[in-house]
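To whoever is on call:

I kicked off a structure prediction for a single chain this morning and the downstream step that reads the tokens threw a length-mismatch warning. I double-checked the sequence; it's 217 residues and nothing unusual in it as far as I can see. Pasting both halves so you can look.
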Amino acid sequence: MSEYRVAEREQNLAELAYTQIRQMILEKKLPGGTSVVEGRLADHLEISRTPVREALMRLAAEDLLVKQGSRSFAVRNVSAAEFFQGIHIREILESEAIALSFDRLDRGLLGSLRAEVVELGETPEQTAAQWQLDDRLHLLFPKTTGNGVMVRTIDSLRTLTRLCEVSYPLGRVPASTVEHLAILDALLDSDANAARQAMVTHLRNVAADCMEILRGG
């Protein structure tokens, strides 16, 4: 095998490792504070250590991981202050994304998302499928605007707040289902203002639930 093909294969494996480890973090399989050891992950993913090492360095550069030792990392713990700051900025940006994308949204896609929200809402425990649906719903609006900066900023803020949700599991699938349906129903009713307010209400409720947990409620 040529050196080029070896390098290409290693790069593909590094991308695969990055995607899988990132997904494990965001889907709560690796909660905040969990040690992430290169060798163990390589064994788990059934690939060599080199692509895993590259993936871990990339995740550390994105602040999903923090260095813990010479060959290990830990999943970053997001402070409560960062969480609430992130939620506040998300309120502003995500409600604005709804306003900017309103005239371009595909009603058929909105209807399909609504059906998925209803179906997955029947399972009260947080599942990987629910995390993925949450990502698709919240990123639909900035992506529809065509504003790449807005997409990257919201995605980054969602990652930040997700890490805190990993540290303090909210268990709020039933509430999120109702709130997501309020957003989608307002859009299907062609009421942009109601949809914007529903998004703000949803994010404020997430913050309120997290505050209740932090207070020991």
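Update from on-call: the warning came from a stale cache, not from the record. Cleared it. Sanity check on the structure: The mean pLDDT is 89.
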